[in-house]
Amino acid sequence: MFDEGLRTASCLMAACLVAGCPTRETQRTEPTLETPVRARATTAVSTAGATCRGRQDCAHDHNCVHEVCRHQRTNVRAEILIEAARGLLTAGDTRSAVEAFDEGFDAYDASDAPIPPEALCDGAIAALQVREGDQVREHAARLADRCLRESLPGDARRVQVLAGLARLRHDGIDLNLFDAPDPPDQYYTLEPTVPGADSVAVQLRFADGDEAGYAQTRELLGTEAANRVIADCFAQEWSQSHARSLDAALLLDMSTRLRDVGDTRLYVGRVRVLPSAADSFSECTAGALNSLLAQSIRLSRSAIWQQPLQIHARLH
Hints:
Blueprint: H1 2-19, H2 24-29, E1 62-65, E2 68-71, H3 76-90, H4 94-110, H5 117-127, H6 134-150, H7 156-166, E3 200-206, H8 214-221, H9 224-241, E4 245-261, E5 264-275, H10 280-292, E6 297-299, E7 305-315
Antiparallel strand pairs: 1-2, 3-7, 4-5, 4-7, 5-6
Helix pairs in contact: 3-4, 3-5, 4-5, 5-6, 5-7, 6-7, 9-10
């Protein structure tokens, strides 16, 4: 009987080898029509700046710190210099901040430690605020490029860098180079283009007053036509200086004269715009607005007054 049982077991084993027998493990895990199939878990490998729930969500040389992937390797001297640069930038000392950022980046590079994307972007934000000289602006563009290559879309610092580059789009910078496979040697390779009226933001600052004709004057100066003549003056000045923003100091001078119309006494007012400062932008805007205000303002009473007007124009 023992031999017969052994022969039976041997036959069963041979049949399993040919057809395959279900084991306890396969019986538990093999999907059937009644058992839903689970999606296989995947491990997302994220770079610096990406959100994470744990170490497994980050690249092999990163750690998950406060739910953000960060490089493991660093340089403490560089970290200190970057924090000093941020303090200088907050205090308004932009030039010193740029120098401190550069020193920190050099320390990172010398130690072969990767520069955190947020540090690169903060350095670019500072450098984009200093716009004197070709070397300075090329350096700012290069830092901006490094920030954009290392940071992730949607990052708040990255958005600030993009806004800074957008303000330079008329200065001859080739925006296509930021999508090139490798950073170029030079970014300002195009001829500067004069900004149109739609690219210039104009802000008028009026003094308070309730003199006769003042409200009508403010209304005329707040029209789209006034914005366009101011933008034209800005474009003329920009073609010479490439200034990102300009201010004009003006004086509004109202005088009236009496005109009898039958039994009605009518006062006709005329506003002259005078430049308060001897700069070309103030003189241009004064002349352009005088042409705009050539029409008379009808009043019911006499009015003689002067009011200051400050104009601030800048590129979007």
